[in-house]
Write a sequence for this structure.
């Protein structure tokens, strides 16, 4: 007990045990509600900030990975999934139950900035009120929506009327104050550079951005609800492909595979793990190629060679993935306990195909560096613009290339190993620039690292003895995890930490399925990056975040 | 001066009749302008001859320019960009996909002309007309070679710059009248940009004028026919691009900004402010803007050719062909820049204009003046 308290504000690299946390929190803890991945502590709704402050400042839990809200028969519950950026295996869940008739809980926003959006989503979909929240509005659904779709008493058949008055006078908000010469500008939802249907409410002072607010939810597809209606074994598995549809398919599938396998205690054969690792890294290259290409499009401003070159290389990856999975976009290749089929025959040709691609890749990357990162105008445009300091990035729960471009050395593939990553020799790409340029560099370097991983996987697969090529373990036809088992698991997607929380209720379908989208958290950093910058830099910053609206809005 | 150099080679195509006429007319004095030639051929004289010759000449030149634009806009631009980005581009309709020009023209013109609510009507309608008009006006004084020059006033080059500058007015009208914030931003950007770059542009041109000692475009061209050096029997003409390459580079860069092409396409900036001043325009008005932009590119190319590349001068081929080649070379350059160079930010552009180009162009002007003063 005294050990933790005597060293405040230090980040303890060692794992904090559940007992230590319990001792640290002392009488704040009402009860224990352990999850499969982490110890869970039940706290009072009015002591959320105390608890989280203590965990952040004295135990080093600086990463609010996700906020899950759900309604039980007798109560609402908010779960704060905490991690450490230094060691994401060190997790703790803070469970905050609130009564059904008065679901008011203290907001975590003063502790973790990222809680703002997460709690808005919880309010929007589940209906929990957060006290002390700076801006508790709906986030995914229209402002005028009636009811909270994930609450138990939600009436699906109730007609929803979205009146047009919202659009009555778009000029009304033009002026921030009476004396300011500011202009309100809607960027999106239809705009060449918003990468989908994103609406940025921007206040401009001349060409400079005074304030920007993201309005999301245009592509909300009830992904969590759809997953809650699917069976663990078969019906959920193809769906993650659709979350982030920028060919990050296998990475997404892995997120679900990992959480379901840990939940149902399913082993994955080593051979399948190697195939998964290889496939996932191919997807990462494809996703990063598109990210780099569109970023160049945003900065260059016109249809340039870089975009075509990036798509050309992405096409090669997609051909490989097509050989492997039979699909180019929605792969549906993973199964619980392995993958659906073995590598295509003849295997030599397939390996040859991958090796050809890997052989050409250094030259292609050299080309990108020549055209993009070595270009002086591009450097003038991107260096020191869209600055995201590491502390801010952490506070917003930024992960993936966005965090690594801000010097936060955080990669779940290494820090929370899964698949075959810990057996392979590769590095985590980190850049300290914190600007748009660093995020671009991180992506280009990650492609190199992915290539290294793929090469090692191919070597392994080539030499794999024929009689040990098990692609799937024995998995029961129907999976029914025990009632009230809860788990939160994340993998390193192309955009960052893609996490899934699942609560089982003893049936073959999840009772609560919550997706932690990396883009959702990363997009939250946009105002920090672009306030005070010029419009072109806002666009560049948005491009450097590499968001996919399908994943942001879920 | 005599017009011998300008008429080297065989006249071809559309220029056939006029070039022959020019050869006759120019036998004993300064070359005749196109209207004079036409009225001479038709046997008209006096005011009637001036009017008919002027109208027919203008009609001819404008159609040549519009024809080039039609080729450049829907077809060449796509082909060139495709070549830079490893693609094939239009190749389905007609030989080399050339009939896409017809298809696109029909498509664009048959679209609905959407007039947004609250636009400032006369200004909104006039803007798309002024843009191509201003560029075509500039061609009035450009010697296109083979006798194709509408007018040759003593202040020719000044007139060309003045006419080209009217484009800014059109962009501002379009941006302001569109009742759209993106358009407004585009218009404001274009004013800032044109202010920052027109001064270096004109000042750099002034250094050429110091060399040539005249504003008259035909005289500037003629001044470049003298031999600069002879290398193994091949005489290099004293084109101002060779005489003062520094001014040439400055002028080309400033010209890119002036006509709003990459990396200075900031008034449009498709990824940032949608389409800038032309966001709200569709159908015919959009076509007019599109035309205007391309004619401006060609006018930019023509000005570069006249001031720095000896105008229509060149070996073997007729002057008119050389002029077209030089204008297309500049067009190719703009498309190359478009495919390869990132767009600078508006504040960086302004800074480059006022702190960089302006200083350099004045340094160039002063140095040129001193040199010419000392040598001459």
């Amino acid at each position: 007990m005294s050990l933790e308290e005597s060293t405040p504000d230090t980040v303890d690299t060692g794992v904090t045990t559940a007992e230590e946390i319990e001792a640290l929190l002392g009488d704040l803890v009402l009860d224990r509600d352990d999850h499969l991945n982490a110890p869970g502590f039940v706290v009072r709704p009015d002591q959320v900030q105390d608890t989280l402050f203590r965990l952040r400042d004295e135990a080093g839990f600086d990463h609010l990975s996700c906020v899950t809200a759900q309604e039980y028969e007798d109560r609402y519950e908010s779960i704060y999934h905490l991690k450490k950026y230094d060691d994401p295996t060190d997790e703790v869940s803070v469970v905050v139950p609130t009564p059904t008739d008065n679901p008011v809980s203290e907001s975590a926003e003063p502790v973790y900035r990222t809680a703002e959006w997460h709690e808005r989503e919880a309010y929007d979909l589940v209906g929990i009120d957060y006290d002390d929240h700076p801006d508790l509005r709906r986030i995914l659904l229209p402002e005028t929506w009636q009811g909270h779709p994930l609450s138990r008493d939600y009436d699906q058949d109730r007609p929803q009327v979205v009146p047009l008055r919202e659009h009555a006078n778009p000029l009304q908000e033009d002026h921030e104050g009476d004396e300011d010469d500011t202009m309100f500008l809607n960027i999106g939802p239809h705009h060449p550079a918003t990468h989908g249907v994103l609406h940025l409410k921007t206040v401009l002072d001349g060409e400079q951005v005074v304030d920007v607010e993201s309005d999301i939810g245009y592509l909300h597809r009830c992904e969590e609800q759809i997953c809650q209606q699917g069976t663990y074994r078969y019906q959920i598995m193809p769906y993650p492909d659709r979350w982030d549809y920028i060919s990050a398919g296998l990475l997404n599938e892995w997120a679900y595979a990992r959480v379901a396998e840990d939940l149902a205690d399913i082993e994955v054969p080593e051979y399948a793990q190697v195939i998964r690792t290889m496939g996932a890294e191919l997807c990462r290259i494809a996703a990063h190629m598109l990210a780099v290409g569109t970023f160049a499009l945003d900065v260059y401003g016109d249809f340039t060679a870089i975009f075509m070159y990036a798509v050309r290389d992405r096409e090669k990856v997609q051909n490989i993935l097509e050989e492997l999975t039979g699909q180019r976009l929605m792969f549906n290749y993973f199964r619980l306990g392995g993958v659906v089929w073995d590598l295509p025959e003849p295997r030599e040709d397939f390996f040859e195909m991958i090796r050809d691609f890997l052989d050409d890749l250094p030259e292609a990357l050299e080309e990108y560096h020549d055209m993009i990162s070595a270009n002086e105008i591009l450097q003038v445009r991107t260096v020191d613009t869209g600055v995201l300091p590491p502390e801010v990035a952490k506070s917003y729960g930024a992960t993936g290339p966005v965090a690594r471009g801000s010097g936060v050395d955080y990669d779940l593939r290494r820090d929370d190993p899964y698949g075959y990553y810990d057996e392979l020799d590769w590095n985590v790409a980190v850049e300290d620039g914190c600007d748009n340029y660093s995020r671009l560099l991180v992506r280009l370097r990650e492609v190199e690292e992915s290539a290294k991983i793929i090469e090692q996987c191919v070597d392994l697969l080539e030499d794999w003895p024929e009689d040990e090529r098990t692609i799937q373990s024995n998995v029961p036809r129907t999976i029914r995890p025990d009632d009230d088992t809860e788990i939160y698991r994340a993998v390193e997607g192309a955009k960052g930490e893609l996490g899934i929380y699942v609560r089982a209720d003893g049936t073959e379908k999840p009772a609560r399925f919550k997706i932690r989208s990396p883009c959702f958290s990363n997009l939250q950093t946009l105002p920090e990056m672009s306030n005070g910058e010029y419009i072109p830099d806002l666009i560049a910053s948005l491009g450097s975040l590499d968001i996919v609206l399908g994943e942001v809005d879920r | 001066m005599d017009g011998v150099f300008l008429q080297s080679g065989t006249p071809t195509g559309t220029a056939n009749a006029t070039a022959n006429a020019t050869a006759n007319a120019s036998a004993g004095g300064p070359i005749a302008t196109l209207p004079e030639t036409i009225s001479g051929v038709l046997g008209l004289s006096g005011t009637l001859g001036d009017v008919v010759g002027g109208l027919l000449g203008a009609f001819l030149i404008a159609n040549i320019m519009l024809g080039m634009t039609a080729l450049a806009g829907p077809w060449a631009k796509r082909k060139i960009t495709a070549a830079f980005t490893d693609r094939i581009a239009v190749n389905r309709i007609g030989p080399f996909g050339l009939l896409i020009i017809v298809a696109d023209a029909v498509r664009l013109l048959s679209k609905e002309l959407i007039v947004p609510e609250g636009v400032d009507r006369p200004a909104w309608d006039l803007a798309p007309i002024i843009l191509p008009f201003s560029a075509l006006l500039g061609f009035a004084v450009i010697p296109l070679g083979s006798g194709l020059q509408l007018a040759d006033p003593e202040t020719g080059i000044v007139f060309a710059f003045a006419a080209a500058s009217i484009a800014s007015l059109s962009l501002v009208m379009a941006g302001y009248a569109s009742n759209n914030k993106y358009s407004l931003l585009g218009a404001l950007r274009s004013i800032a940009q044109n202010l920052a770059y027109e001064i270096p542009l004109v000042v750099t041109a002034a250094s050429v004028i110091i060399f040539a000692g005249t504003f008259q475009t035909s005289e500037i061209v003629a001044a470049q026919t003298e031999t600069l050096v002879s290398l193994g029997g091949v005489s290099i003409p004293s084109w101002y691009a060779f005489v003062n390459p520094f001014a040439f580079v400055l002028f080309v860069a400033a010209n890119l900004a002036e006509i709003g092409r990459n990396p200075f396409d900031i008034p449009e900036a498709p990824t940032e402010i949608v389409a800038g001043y032309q966001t709200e325009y569709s159908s015919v008005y959009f076509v007019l803007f599109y035309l205007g932009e391309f004619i401006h590119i060609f006018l930019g190319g023509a000005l570069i050719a006249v001031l720095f590349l000896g105008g229509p001068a060149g070996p073997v081929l007729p002057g008119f062909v050389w002029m077209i080649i030089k204008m297309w070379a500049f067009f190719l350059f703009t498309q190359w820049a478009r495919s390869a160079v990132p767009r600078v930010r508006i504040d960086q552009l302004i800074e480059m204009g006022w702190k960089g180009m302006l200083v350099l162009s004045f340094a160039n002007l002063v140095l040129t003046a001193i040199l010419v003063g000392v040598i001459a």
Remarks:
- Residues 80 and 86 of chain B are 10 Å apart (CA to CA).
- The two ends of chain B are 20 Å apart (CA to CA).
- Chain B touches chain A at residues 81, 84-87, 181-182, 185, 189, 262-263, 265, 269-274, 338-348 (CB under 8 Å).
